[in-house]
Amino acid sequence: MKCVTCGADNEVGARFCGNCGAVLGAPSAPPAGPTGVTCPSCHSVNPVGSTFCENCGARIGTAPAQALSVQTAETPPNKTSAAWWLLPIFMAWVGGLIGWLVVKEDNKGKAKGLLVLGIVMTFVWMVVGIAASLLSTYLAY
What are the backbone angles phi and psi of residue 15, rounded to the nearest 5°? Predict the structure, then answer.
């Protein structure tokens, strides 16, 4: 089956292109024999050299699945430093925006929290500034 996106040849019955991962259409028949690369996600067999699984569309890495799971255990996904919370506290909305831009790909919940904290801190710093101004004016007399 030829991919309409990249033009790569795929086996009959493939649901996703083995080269670019695009959806190929309705499957017609399962692939012939178990010769090729096994997908770490769905364990289906793909032709040698496939970058994406033809069954589920997952990326097929060059490292064995066991090595990938060990690497995942050592570096858990969505783990970002807690120090990012200091940025919106001291830099208000600008720090919240910078934190959101940096963290949004790794942890969407934390990114949203940084942005909200930046907006809240903008108002907090404004109130502190007004209070300091009023206090200095009051103490000057």
Answer: -95, -25
